[in-house]
Amino acid sequence: MTTLDALPLRQELRDRRAYGAPQIATAVKLNTNESPFPPPQALLDAIGESLRAAASDLHRYPDPDAGALRRDLAGYVSQTDGAEVSAQNIWVANGSNEVMQHVLQAFGGPGRSAMGFEPTYSMYRHLTLGTGTRWMAEQRGDDFSLNLIDARRAIVERRPDVVVIANPNSPDGGSVSLEGIETLVTAAPGIVVVDEAYVEFSAQTSATTLVERHPTKLMVSRTLSKAFGMAGIRLGYLVAHPAVVEAMRLVRLPYHLSTFTQAAARAALSHHQRMAETVRLLIAERRRVTQELTSLGFTVAPSDGNFLLFGSFPDAAAAWNRYVDRGVLLRDVGIDGHLRTAIGSPTENDAFLAASSAIRNSVP
Ligand code: PMP
Asked: How many domains does the chain have?
């Protein structure tokens, strides 16, 4: 049988594993921080209509500038964040993963470096590998928080071309304040990307409000995958200065965002009021699950996201299997003694808490 080893693969890709969470069919799926709620009927109808209308143009390539979608996104950001944003400030791509890839293609690459603060979203490191960017890992504290003095010092001393900060951070959900972000932007010799994939679940003000003050340095990445509950659409966007958006055009593939993606995303955005309601429910559930886990004797990292990192387990991999045995799929993010759970629907959270109680009270 021919295996990867037989291929003339780039040296730095040898012995690497593809990114992805183990997928097992369980009753309760809490491993990838998705929304637990499928689109309601009104949104399904809106998406259906939008796709049907778009289908009549399928013999043509999509709008390469995604003009209508970028205008809608600019309206959404201006309305919810209070930032003055127009379509020229918005870049769109297939999920915020692709947004981040474009950023690294344009501002990282061979001979350049990107700094992140681990543990953090592991795709950053992965994307540096694919784009030939040198990854500079700095560490968060034992409680997963980002020490701003240490982070600033690392940026000043090591001078990365790109700094990536997930805010809220995954896998723990902790946030840096807006002032903290600005301190790091001021210190950075290159650019700073703030990844706000989970920002709608956070009480912090968005860094989009700082873009105008730091036009050549700061960019903010967002997604419809989490709060909007639209992970299947694959729509991420960047809020940045128009010159940065021009830079993104240099590295994107022609017609990278399909007609259907653009149409479905516009329909999803038009229902953002409903999204705000589910976010409120999930935040209330996050509070309840945190309290109940704590009263079961677990330690839970304070989270501004739709997920919780908790422990401790004598053996996280074994604990992960015990949850699976009880029909609950969590994420083992490779942090000693810890597992991560998404906040699900109230029923799913009850199932997760019942499993947690059983696992806590049984001899490992
Ligand atoms: N950033 C963070 C911190 C994430 O956790 C995720 C999803 N797991 C993403 C970005 C990517 O999201 P998407 O590509 O679906 O927009």
From this structure: 2
